[in-house]
Predict the 3D structure of the following.
Amino acid sequence: MAQEGLLVSAFYVLVFTAMLITYRVVRGPTLPDRIVGLNTITTKVVIIIAVVSVIRREYYLVDLAIVLLMVNSVGGLILAKYMERRSHA
């Protein structure tokens, strides 16, 4: 039971910090700042899904978290390539 309370606390901390990072995504000041902020929020969402999976004992949600993490990685690479091409033009 104490372990579940710790996981619930971790859930709230992760949600709170993700909301703080939302400021960086919305306000910038630069495109790389926004991309890093969005990447960080997505990573936090993956961890939140994993924590919820353990709390509710619904481990199939871990598969969803893994897929989201892969999409996040590929999206980050695509955005980095876009920024590289934009800087050369």
Remarks:
- The mean pLDDT is 90.
- Residues 39 and 72 are 7 Å apart (CA to CA).
- The two ends are 57 Å apart (CA to CA).
